[in-house]
Amino acid sequence: SVVGFLLDEEVTVKDLFYGTILPSGADAALGLANYIAGSEGAFVELMNEKASELGMENTHFANVTGLHDEEHYTTVEDMAALLRYALKDRTFRTIFCTEKYTASPTEEHPEGLTFQSSMFRLREDWKVPGGEVRGGKTGFTDQSGLCLASLAHVDNRDYIIVTAKANGNHQTEPYHVLDALNLYGQLRKEWGRSDTGV
């Protein structure tokens, strides 16, 4: 999927971040990689260094878009570790929890481009027992199925859940969302007010 930025269009880094996270824009992700590291390959090296630093032992990145590659793999446990780390950054947390965003005007897009979170557009009600889902990032390939990394605030605590390999696709029920909502709904029963969380 793409945001709609055009080749050689001058956009802000902030807009590229929003375009990468909210609608899973491959054009935005590639733009960020090129800006930060000079190429996608060089940025992938940085990704793998960070994964190693975070102890993500079952992860290896091969691209910045998440598209299928035999050398591009991870686990839900490793993705949870990455999300836990990223949520410590206030800017990332803000973007991750944003429903809709309009990029700055450019010559090519005088009104700016408006895009919506790929998670929030799947349903209107994000309430769960004792709280709400506040942000998330979806993913899908034929091999990985429907995936979701999300953040919820329940009973005054933050929780993250990463689900993968849900049945379906973009034309079916959002089973990855239903999986996450079901799990968040179990928090009070299973853990109550324990120290389990982000």
Entry keywords:
6 strands; alpha+beta; globular
Rg over CA atoms, rounded to whole Å, is: 17 Å
How far apart, in Å, are the first and last alpha carbons?
29 Å
How much strand? Answer: 15-25%
Largest sheet: spatial strand order: 3-4-5-6
Give me the number of helical elements: 7
Class based on secondary structure composition and strand pairing: alpha+beta
Shape: globular
Largest beta-sheet characterization: 4 strands, antiparallel
Order of helices and strands: HHHHHEEEEEEHH
Query: Kindly state the mean pLDDT as a whole number?
Result: 94
Instruction: Let me know the number of strands.
Output: 6
Question: What level of helicity do the residues show?
Answer: 25-40%
Q: Can you describe this structure?
A:
This protein is an alpha+beta fold and 198 residues long. The chain is built from seven helices and six strands. The protein has a four-stranded antiparallel beta sheet with strand order 3-4-5-6, sandwiched between helices. A two-stranded antiparallel ribbon has the order 1-2. α1 (13-21) crosses α2 (26-37). The longest helix has 14 residues, at 40-53. The protein is globular. The model has no long low-confidence stretch (mean pLDDT 94).
Short description:
By secondary structure, this protein is of the alpha+beta class. Helix content is 34%, strand content 20%.
